[in-house]
Design a protein that fits this description.
The complex is a heterodimer of chains A (219) and B (106). By secondary structure, chain A is mainly alpha-helical. Chain A is 79% helix and 0% strand. Chain A has twelve helices and no strands. Chain A is globular and about 55 Å long. Chain B has 106 residues and is an all-alpha fold. The two termini of chain B are 35 Å apart. The chains are: A mainly alpha (219), B mainly alpha (106).
């Protein structure tokens, strides 16, 4: 009963994030069309991989050997390591298989929701996935079908919609000055690092560094 | 591209995306503890701050800035700080984004 309530809460709380997922899916669908992928291929990739950044990186390297694609996907997904560590801490009372299930359901936005609500239930995370997964796959299909019709501005807006979601949730998760300082320091560090390396590579390093500093630096 | 190569591509992308999520969850056991709890709270805040910056700058290196996006992010973050209402704050940020893009700030 408790799990069912958490699942429904996860579904409900992630509904506002669904338009961002659809917009991001549209952008991937349009990029996949430009790279020559067929509708079935792009939708299958979204359905199986469920990772926008890894998929966007892959469509630009489609004709590379499969091991190179695996390494690229792994590199842009390294940010999920600290997210999974944080989620494991939040769900420490759940059985291991439920923690694993919840970890496999996380994407950037679903992790953000879990962190912002400080959930203790893996079913909450599964609930957020139940909203974000279909909106991501449907967005991909819509992006493939409507790529020639979509205005460039709408595609440019997809990053902006997602950025607003993260900024709002970042503010909500910061309940102390120290957390706010760590969030700002990470953002500044990532922004500086992005002058030379992609953001999703800089993010896990900067986040771990800022969190450790936040823990050891005295008041 | 053959169907087999596409299947390999999809498998490789999925494996690369799932491994970093699954490995810590399958292998770590984090017990209760005040210090651990504080670290995880700081880590969550750090990751969200970093994610906001990455998506504001578009993810790629070198960073590029679409003027409409930081305006929308600032509006959403300010609304969240003032109201603590998620949906309202997102709508405020998105409204500013649409307005700025329509005004040509892209």
């Amino acid at each position: 009963m408790e799990g069912w309530r958490a699942l429904r809460h996860g579904v409900a709380i992630s509904l506002p994030v669904a338009p961002g997922n659809v917009a991001w899916g549209l952008a991937f669908g349009a990029a996949a069309t430009a790279a020559g992928l067929r509708l079935s291929g792009a939708v299958a990739m979204s359905a199986v991989a469920f990772s926008g950044t890894a998929q966007l990186a892959a469509v630009s390297l489609l004709h590379q050997p499969v091991p190179a694609l695996f390494l690229t996907s792994l590199l842009v997904s390294v940010r999920f390591l600290p997210m999974s560590v944080a989620l494991t801490g939040m769900l420490r009372e759940a059985p291991r298989w439920q923690r694993l299930l919840a970890a496999c359901c996380i994407a950037d936005a679903t992790f953000a929701l879990a962190a912002a609500t400080d959930t203790r239930s893996p079913w909450f995370v599964v609930g957020t996935w139940l909203t974000s997964y279909p909106s991501w796959v449907a967005g991909t299909a819509a992006g493939m079908l409507m790529a020639p019709l979509l205005p460039a501005r709408l595609l440019a807006a997809s990053d902006g919609m997602v950025a607003v979601i993260f900024a709002v949730l970042a503010v909500e998760v910061c309940l102390s000055r120290r957390q706010a300082a760590v969030a700002v320091a990470t953002a500044a560090g990532v922004g500086a690092a992005m002058l030379v390396v992609p953001g999703y590579v800089a993010l896990p390093v900067m986040a771990m560094l800022a969190a450790v500093l936040g823990l050891v630096v005295p008041r | 591209m053959t169907g087999l190569h596409l299947a390999g591509v999809i498998g490789a992308v999925a494996a690369g995306a799932v491994l970093p999520k699954a490995v810590p969850a399958a292998s770590l056991s984090i017990g209760p503890g005040r210090r651990g709890e504080r670290f995880l709270g700081l880590l969550a805040a750090a990751l969200l701050g970093g994610l906001a910056m990455v998506s504001t700058l578009g993810g790629k290196a070198p960073a590029r800035l679409t003027p409409a996006v930081p305006l929308a992010v600032a509006a959403g973050a300010t609304a969240a700080a003032l109201t603590r209402r998620t949906l309202l704050s997102m709508l405020a940020g998105w409204a500013v984004l649409v307005g700025a893009l329509l005004a040509g700030l892209d």
